[in-house]
Amino acid sequence: MAPTAEAVLEIRDLVKHFPLTQGIVFKKQVGAVKAVDGVSFDLYRGETLGVVGESGCGKSTLAKLLMVLERPTAGSVHYKGQDIYKLRGKDFKAMRRNVQIILQDPYTSLNPRMTVADIVGEPFDIHPEVAPKGDRRRKVQELLEVVGLNPEHINRYPHQFSGGQRQRIGIARGLALRPEVIICDEPVSALDVSVQAQVINLLEGLQNEFNLSYIFIAHDLSVVRHIADRVAVMYLGSLVEIGTDQQIYETPTHPYTQALLSAVPVPNPVGRGERERILLSGDVPSPADPPSGCRFRTRCFKAADKCAREVPLLEVRPGSPHPSACHFAEIKPVVDTVDA
Amino acid sequence: MTDYRATQERDRGQAPGAVSPAPGTGGTDASAVTPGVTTYPAAIAGGEVGGRPSSLASDAWADLRRKPLFWLSASFILLMAVVAIRPQLFTGQDPYECDLLNSVKRPSSGHWFGYDIQGCDYYTRVIYGARPSISIGILVTIMSVIIALVLGALAGYYGGWVDTLVSRSADIFLGIPFLLGAIVFLNAFERRGVWVVALALTVLGWMTLARLMRSSVIQARDMDYVSAARALGASDTRILVRHILPNAVTPLIVYATVTIGIIISAEATLSFLNVGLQLPSISWGLQIQDAQFRFESDPHLLLFPSLFLSLTVLSFMVLGDVVRDAFDPKLR
Question: Which overall architecture, per CATH, does domain B92-331 show?
């Protein structure tokens, strides 16, 4: 479904620093891990925004912040015009109803001592206004049907299901309150490839059916390309590039995105040798002590003096038709990757 | 499914079908992409229960009912409980009616357990000894488990200063030598009955259970399903009661059943040191201590109370074991 221009979530300058302390009795803050450091974007109704980046770049912290499982150091997230971190009591609970999460690991995200009926029905216990008490069992069975599970298995325990089926239970739980936004924190990373496809297609089908907005966090570039309308690339706590999936996958302008895409294996042996691979040197710097200026400069093949002095803003530039956080952003036609 | 979609759209204030591509398309998509998922391996189809609602407790009971070990241990505990509550049902004699002429007589057809050194009927003494021993064991365990549940759950779940307070207090109590502490505490009381001894043993013994509880709560607290519940808007109480405690009490239950046995023998130790129950009280502990020096000459004096003690302790441990298994769906 084509995304409409109405923003559901507006994320502005979101910052999360985890303090590093020293001393046992008198704790002294000696620094901070800058897990998320100034992230801003909008999520539109009915769209899927993919967030990609390597391990430790702050993707999962971002998901936790959006779910208010962690409170940010600074910044705001507006849902329907209200800052979700300032909501209290009833309004906060109403916001919970509309923003839901699907977690990464289907083996730890379901309480092993609850039956499927309890797990999928729990949202109704917490928000009793959604479903009258006598109606809940039928609702749970409907939800199981929606995600492609046998509604007769309502009395089973999670360990009696396979990984893919468990992830469907998690999805059913996320759908129960009929949210508008679902944050998917690597929902398919723990599944094998054939099951990944089933779950991805299920998510797409549900999006069409219920007009959901997804924030789809993943490290698998081809999965994101398949499902996302827009893609944001994250590096060391901040966004380096954001655009439609075509802009990011076919005309990336940030050197990090280009390097990332050049690492995707090409399934076609014919063009394999002709492709230029960008090899990055070194490791990701510590988020407790990120480099000055551009955070990517220590590993960048384009780095110049300017990069150490000035922080490149995420904006449209002469060399980049979509926002890119690089002083020397330009389209580099290296990347003819995945299933084009 | 159609109904679900319709309500969804109504809630959003949209006309049905206004945004969805074509009626039914989504539904067909969802099922079309899941071939093979609606067919289930026969292996897991065994536990089919259809429409009957089930809960962890009812499933656990259904499981327990089929275990002979459960019936064996439970019926022995029940028997000992009846013995403890109404010893008169099992013996017509008064345990304090003794004749020194009968001192240490061997078991005979009229008096199966023989006589003790005071010439009292030993069967009657052993039967009457069940009450103090078992009630101290159970009282102390129940009180310690309650303390451990509350303190361990609070310390583990909230962390921070609550945890510091609880953990350091536990350390302080662990620093008190058990026997020294018990002697000092119990000597403060002139008359020492079951309650006083139970209180002393609880004060000196709750720490291990509380620490155990704290660590398993910490383990459960960081699980993904707790995050999921919090994301749904569950309150702290709900998260603790529905998600953390059921997944954290298993080690506590198991250790508590062991504790009953430990406490019963600790009571015996204290009685031996003359700071536990006092004569003329009757308890297995007092009887075992009395008998230990005459094992060679009169083995029956040690045999009978020890036999009852071991069987009771063993039953509690076996019961704890099968109950734990029944409440863990993964083992079913």
Answer: Orthogonal Bundle (1.10)
